Amino acid sequence: MHRRRGALFAGGIAIAALTLTATPAAAGPSAAETADQAAERAAAQATEKLPAGMLKAMQRDLGLTEAQARTRITNEFKAGKEEAGLRAELGASWAGSWVTGKTSDEIVVATTDAAEAEAIEAAGATAEVVDDSLAELNAVKRALDRASAERATTDAPVWYVDVTSNTVVLHAKKTAAAKEFVSAAGLDAGDVKIVRSGESPRPYYDLRGGEAYYINNSGRCSIGFPVTRGSTQGYATAGHCGRAGASTSGHNRVAQGTFQASSFPGNDMAWVAVNSNWTVTPYVRGSGGANVTVSGSTQAAVGASICRSGSTTGWHCGTIQQHNTSVTYPEGTITGVTRTSVCAEPGDSGGSYISGSQAQGVTSGGSGNCSIGGTTYHQPINEILSAYGLTLVTSGGGDPDPPTGCSGYESTHSGSLSSGGQAVQPNGSYYYSSSSGTHRGCLDGPSGSDFDLYLQKWSGSSWTTVARGITSAADETVGYSGTSGYYRWIVHAYSGSGSYTLGLDRP
């Protein structure tokens, strides 16, 4: 962690570049990028194809220039990928992390062990020594969650772990009601910080996020993210939009699908299976109808920028304030949602939250509006995927199902990598494509790992990544339509070790 963290965060997360001077026809570009260089390049390219609407919304809502918005997304992409490693290394002393600064160029790492501070600082991050670990704070929040089954009240509707202040915070319209709630949870007054607030969160029902859909030909909600389950296609959305068995029609009123499962309150998640009239895509509807590409679902850090699409209010952005928040609506309490400063209004329910190209969650509810500002909550997408056994449809390739051995490709290559290592394929070298067409790669990595796959093309002076599969899964599929030239594939063991199989097709 410390070696990588220093490279990633020192000097505001500088982007490294690999320069090669030999041409393929002469010496052949056989040297692979280092793991750090591959990670740096992937992070930089996370901003290359962002739709103009997303950048403009970030400029408007966060007070950024276009260059600052791009830099911020790059920094946050890398911070999100690194948080899992930080958490594992600090173990019981882990107290959370967050990004700060206009372009998220600083990461703060909180720990209860003062002995860790020097190593954290040496790695280029800012260390903050605190009293309570994240595990201890989560235990306090779970006590409130349990009490909410009997004592939840809209007079104290929101509570969460705030890693930036190392406290559990409870928002309340009436302090007396909040104190009664804390006591009913078996907690002491000092365990929870009560904050006076006028929030009155409610679910957003008649809303359209990326695309509208209608429930039983009446109520209207929004598609969150396209997903698959085996050979079945569908989408994730908010649970309060419909119950299992409810039928849906699309934005064009064409028969669409059926709710397969739904949870609300407690959670606010659901998924809909669609019929053969509909095809999943790795996109969210962005500003002006532009496609926002989804390439993964790495959870962004507290303080990171995040954008939301809604038919009522359009494309709006803000920041992540807290993860693991509990909120009480008139219908009951939901737990484990993320609190953001993105505004929303009725008409945005079930829609998509995205940070850079990483899916974050589906719109649950909130308070305020986009005229005076507001607070919103989203159900994390990874929890929905896990709960229902779904696979997020991403830009990693044409087949939304994970690889199962990568058979049926023109050539197959195998290898073994330790965590952080990488290999060049095919066979440690490159290949020449004399015609335009589609290059396809299928990576079947070891169970429980996070292996990534990159396709690079020789520019005449260096290798440039033109396509990538960088989800948090062991397996990746990548497709790229390119012109003639020299190409190579990079297999990178982002975390975990073991053997892999790579299937390749070329034009």
UniProtKB/TrEMBL annotation:
InterPro entries membership: Alpha-lytic_protease_prodomain, Pept_S1_alpha_lytic, Pept_S1A_streptogrisin, Peptidase_S1_PA, Peptidase_S1_PA_chymotrypsin, Streptogrisin_prodomain
- Region Disordered: what ranges? 396-422
Q: Which UniProt keywords apply?
A: Disulfide bond, Hydrolase, Protease, Serine protease, Signal, Zymogen
- In this chain, composition skew of type Polar residues spans 409-422
What's an example GO cellular component term for this entry? extracellular region
Cite the Peptidase S1A alpha-lytic prodomain domain residue spans from the record: 133-189
Q: One GO molecular function term? A: serine-type endopeptidase activity
Residues annotated as signal peptide: 1-27
Does the UniProt entry include the keyword Hydrolase?
yes
Q: GO:BP terms for this protein?
A: proteolysis
Q: What name appears for this protein in its UniProt entry?
A: Streptogrisin C
